[in-house]
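Bit of a strange request maybe. I'm writing a small parser for structure token strings and I need a real example to test against, not something I typed by hand. Could someone generate the tokens for this chain?
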Amino acid sequence: MASYTPPKASIWFKIPVADMDAAQRFYGAVLQNELTHEETGPNPIAMFAAQDRMASGHLYPGKPAPAGTGPTVHLAVAAPIEDGLKRVADNGGQVVSPVIDIPSGRFAYCLDPDGNSFGLFVPAVAA
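Reply from user aminoacidic:
Good idea to test on real output. This should exercise your parser:
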């Protein structure tokens, strides 16, 4: 059997949302990241800004899984992480864990207004 080790484990991610405009405002405010509306594929999307677009992701019109049951994507946020967690709560999301310290950085689990699970992450070099 052949073995394949990709340069990155994930290529991009998609987050299903019920209201594209509201979700774009939520994630833009929380991440301090301007999402770009695009209609180049089968669905309208809102792309997260990133230096490497192939490691980025987007929002799309869809049906979120029941609150906290789908995959959890961890999103980069500027340090300190506590400021990002405050923006989650201030913009209608929910912080569902304390900040967790690991060797590579700090993260916390959250839910967006649609109930999608996500984490905010600050790398150790930026923490």
